[in-house]
Amino acid sequence: MKLSDIEFRAMQSSGRKWGQTYFELPLFQRMGLNVKDKDILEIGCGNGYGGYLLNQLKPKSYIGLGVMEEQIEIARHKYPQYQYMLQDATDLSQFANASKDVVIIFGVLHHIPEWRKVLDEITRVLKPNGQLFLEEPRGVDIKFFDFFFRWGHPDSDFGLNAMEGYLQLRSFKFQKQWTPLMTMYCAQKT
Ligand SMILES: C[S@@+](CC[C@H](N)C(=O)[O-])C[C@H]1O[C@@H](n2cnc3c(N)ncnc32)[C@H](O)[C@@H]1O
User: Fold this and answer.
1) Ligand 1 pocket check: which of 111, 121, 146 to mutate, most ligand atoms within 8 Å of Cβ?
2) Which of 43, 83, 87, 91 is nearest to 59 (CA)?
3) Does the beta carbon of 134 lie inside 6 Å of ligand 1?
4) Does the beta carbon of 110 sit less than 6 angstroms from any atom of ligand 1?
5) 3-state secondary structure at position 12
6) For a pocket test of ligand 1, which of 23, 90, 108 has the largest count of ligand atoms closer than 8 A to its C-beta?
7) pTM beyond 0.85
8) From edge to edge, which strands make up the β-sheet containing 183-189?
9) What is the pLDDT of residues 165-183, one digit of tens each?
10) Rounded distance between C-alpha atoms, residue 36 and residue 100, angstroms
11) Cα distance between residue 173 and residue 167, in whole Å
């Protein structure tokens, strides 16, 4: 789903970059993220800054995808050396089965009412023992932002408990780390 204007602006802010650079990516790394020489896919790549950071870690291949044309244009303009695609994450059919070592999501599933389909697709494209790193907010935090800042998230049954249950159903083993805005996960396909 497209972002509201206010969330779109928040995603372009220097605060967002600061958070990804100094907090979220390092925390994923402490949880085991290592993309060097790996085939990686970023779901919901926004304006491409996460892709820029990930590419500094020298993956073998990187593709970032998202559904918002305006953001993908910014990503392609700012970082023309990296690959960004306009693509809905519920359909990853252009990627072969077991073709990715690592999939990364910085706060996206709570924007996608059909989030289970995205997890199904990720399960398919990950190699055996491949890893999914993701961060998502709690339902209460989504409600807070919608009530006070009118971020306008979609109606969805997404929640961390539901997501954890679905990861287990899809045979992922995971560890998680709570932070004030997001809960961070390292999930391994078994
Ligand atoms: C909260 S923003 C996060 C953007 C970026 N990951 C970041 O952390 O700055 C959510 C992103 O999910 C993308 N998105 C929403 N629905 C999507 C879908 N069905 N498939 C792919 N991306 C989607 C939006 O375009 C937006 O870029």
Assistant:
1) 111
2) 83
3) no
4) no
5) helix
6) 108
7) yes
8) 83-86, 61-66, 39-43, 100-106, 126-136, 183-189, 172-178
9) 999 999 999 999 999 989 9
10) 13
11) 8
